[in-house]
Design a protein that fits this description.
The complex is a heterodimer of chains A (about 150) and B (about 200).
Chain A (H helix, E strand, L loop, with lengths): L2 E2 L2 H11 L4 E4 L4 E3 L4 H10 L7 E9 L3 E10 L4 E10 L5 E3 L8 H12 L2 E3 L27
Parallel strand pairs in A: 1-6, 3-6, 7-8
Antiparallel strand pairs in A: 2-3, 4-5, 5-6
Chain B lengths: L13 H17 L11 H6 L8 H11 L3 E2 L6 H9 L13 E2 L7 E5 L7 H10 L5 E5 L1 H5 L21 E3 L6 H16 L11
Parallel strand pairs in B: 1-2, 3-4, 4-5
Helix pairs in contact in B: 3-7, 4-7
The chains are: A alpha/beta (about 150), B mainly alpha (about 200).
Chain lengths: ~150, ~200
């Protein structure tokens, strides 16, 4: 059975490496500032003992005031997992750094979030519609979306 | 149990078996000197007394409704009820429909088994356009009729009749095979009323 690592424990390690990077840590998850996302993700992937080599999924949540992007990480080597979160603000062009450089599997999932939730990913090579067709207006998974039908 | 010489257990020696075989062949040959006549040779004579007169319409419609070929275009879960209908228990081969064509050019019926999204809609329209006239459409299931539970969604077509003309609507989510068969019978009735002088369907 995969062991879920506590966000609090990881937070201790991260605070030494990246001061002021943690917004909130709890047993279920770890919330980092968006500008620290890439360094933290790199640290989680490359540090011996953590080795989060596999990105299980990315998803996003609309909280009206901000969007939260949720990364579910797994280490195949140690059979443990961690939930990493970050927030982005604004409804016109919320932006998060892309993690494609670390996990190639992020490509389609970031495109899906861009398509349905309207969050841009800096550094993504082909950020365009994936499920919806070109010229589709709006982002259907946003809570203020109305289909008009 | 003692294992003796196996050859001694047979009544006949090998030579006797060969002789028996030879006799059988000779006997068959002796009875097969003439070709067996065609058992249906009386038919020619009978047909002369049984010419059927009918109208072209009745003949054509009978031929068309008796072998509707369905195009393979089933976007979602209603397809499984369709498969059940096609399989041995419900058996649409009773209506000459067991052939599901992978090419729309060889099909004259589309059974729209499943939810249609706007992204899939151009392909369905193209498949319909490629089917040879005369052609018919059965809208199978709630999604095909109105979008079903997805009606009002940003991505789902609210009914196939936005894309292609539908002849028969079969409600259900999904419809039971009996319901689909009833819909097929209704389509048969509809085809029976066609005439060759009527114009082709409105696009």
């Amino acid at each position: 059975m995969t062991v879920t690592l506590s966000g609090k424990e990881i937070a201790g390690q991260l605070e030494e490496q990246f001061p002021e990077s943690i917004v909130e840590s709890c047993p279920d998850s770890l919330l980092v500032k968006s500008e620290f996302l890439l360094p933290v993700a790199t640290f989680l992937k490359t540090t011996p003992g953590l080795d989060f080599g596999y990105l299980t999924s990315i998803t996003a949540v609309d909280y009206y005031d901000y969007f939260e992007v949720v990364y579910q990480l797994t280490s195949m080597k140690h059979n443990h997992s961690l939930v990493l979160k970050t927030r982005c603000y604004g409804r016109d062009n919320p932006t998060v750094t892309s993690v494609i450089g670390l996990w190639r599997g992020a490509e389609f999932q970031e495109r899906e979030i861009y398509d349905l939730m309207g969050i841009s990913f800096n550094g993504h090579p082909h950020l365009k519609h994936i499920f919806l067709w070109e010229s589709f207006q709006g982002h259907p998974l946003r809570k203020d979306y109305h289909s008009g039908a | 149990m003692e294992i003796g010489n196996i050859g001694e257990k047979y009544v006949y020696s090998e030579t006797e078996l060969d002789r028996a075989e030879g006799e059988a062949i000779e006997s068959l040959k002796a009875h097969s000197q003439q070709p067996i006549p065609d058992p249906d040779r009386w038919l020619d004579e009978e047909l002369r007394h049984n010419v059927l007169l009918t109208s072209v319409d009745a003949m054509l419609n009978w031929a068309r409704r008796s072998s509707l070929w369905t195009v393979l275009a089933f976007p979602a879960c209603c397809a499984f009820e369709l498969i059940a209908t096609a399989a041995s228990r419900y058996d649409i081969s009773r209506f000459g429909m067991e052939i599901l064509r992978a090419s729309p050019r060889q099909a004259d019926l589309m059974i729209t088994a499943g939810t249609l999204t706007w992204k899939m809609a151009p392909q369905i329209r193209r498949i319909y356009d490629q089917m040879a006239e005369p052609k018919w459409v059965i809208a199978m299931g709630a999604c095909a009729i109105s979008g079903g539970i997805f009606s009002g969604s940003y991505s789902v077509v609210p009914g196939y009749n936005r894309i292609i003309p539908v002849d028969v609507y079969v409600p259900g989510c999904p419809p039971r095979p009996e319901a689909l068969l009833y819909g097929i019978k209704m389509l048969h009735d509809k085809i029976s009323k066609r005439s060759i002088v009527e114009k082709s369907k409105q696009k």
